[in-house]
Amino acid sequence: MLLWLTLPVLARGQSHRIGNAATVFSVKGTFFALSVADMEASVKWYSEKLDLKVVMREPKKNKSAVTVLAGGGLMVELLQDDDAVPSGKEAHLVHGIFKTGLIVDDLDKTLSMLKVRKVPIAFGPYPATQNSAGNFIVSDNAGNLIQFFGK
After folding, report:
1. I need a surface site. Which of 71, 78, 86, 116 has the fewest CB within 10 A?
2. Mean pLDDT for the stretch of residues 72-91
């Protein structure tokens, strides 16, 4: 119930307007790239859920298309290649990166804004402890994990 009281009046009981003045998060110089099966679905998810804007779009050439989205200090590159194959449901069992993370200025605000945008929380939220920052993990439209940490 306390969370309800801390949400901005604009967000209570109303749908969130994409592109309004409230940002989901603010980070400095964060970037990650993903190989995706469905470019349009991923562009839509990152635009609607994280409020990122398309800053570059390269049409398909030699079986690959690229879209770059940015906002709030985050840049995400999406690559759709016709020859790519999924890593499987157990990405953490494949060597290589299995999740990415962002350190945000205000973890509670970020969590609230993501909930308003109906982003399901995959794990957490976990409170800060002596040994770790508070954090939570979301899953994007394709199952990629993104962990948000408080400062």
Report:
1. 86
2. 85
